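Example complex used in Figure S2.
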Amino acid sequence: MTARSSVFAVSFSREPSPGVETLQREQELNRFLAEVEKRALRITEISIRDRDEALDLVQNAMIKLVRKYSSRTSDEWTPLFYRILQNGVRDWHRRQTVKKRVIVWFGGSDDEDPDVIAKAPDTAGRTPHEQLESHEAMKDLERALAGLPQRQKEAFMLRTFEGLDVADTATAMGCSAGSVKTHYSRAVHSLRETLGDHW
Amino acid sequence: MSEHNDDELFEAKAKGLFDDSVQAIDGQTQSRLNRGRQKALAELARRPAAGVLGIWAPATGVAVAAVVAVALWSGNRPPADIAPASSATDLEILLNEDSLEMLEELEFYSWIELDEDAGANVG
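Predicted assembly (322 residues):
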């Protein structure tokens, strides 16, 4: 092999083929989605109080992220994913408002779904009493969250539950960093007031 | 203890309880999440075809928006008894790129509005 051809061979071998690039991207996306999906599900479930609907919304957000933003750097995926998801949640609430009018018109019932978390086995090796305490405290928190305005709820869950910083939360919520701080501060104040010192 | 420390304790407790609830997600739900993820990843294989469509996507979006705007505001006006006051809200929702599927339910939403107006006129 001549020097020229060997240089070509080396430079050629360093260029990943489109198929390899797609495979690498798929693996990155798979890792990202697997890492975020359970927390995203719980955040959505707390927002809309329906696990089946939350599963649909999370799946739609995953599909939209892959369709629209798979070529973005992986650092950008978390806020983009949550932005798509929050838009989905807001759309869901709009639709529910319309559907509830119909349900009320036809005299249907709007009962909450059974508590699926209560049925889940404990994986942390806690006593039944500790599990019950933890579960009840979480239910209290969820009830308090349900009483918050949507934007405060979003800010609190994205910052506290998902651990996003202010800038990423602002991207996810589609608002300024200042608004995130205001919503978050009001959410914490309101939740602490609702839950009281005993919580 | 300061208010700031109290807030931090509160946030830490909330985060701990949330993490516990995430860990408690049952196997069946995890399986459904996994299937959803695989379905999403399958979109990667379709992206080259989507790229060709992508050239036309902005033009299609503008065309759809124009048709919707015209239908709601002027030419193809709905019957007079469908409330025009909510047209701006309808348009805002319909133009949201995550809400285009609502187009499929236009008839349903029109019916709701018509129904409400009828109700409002009673009594």
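The longest helix of chain B spans residues 27-73. Chain B has four helices and no strands.
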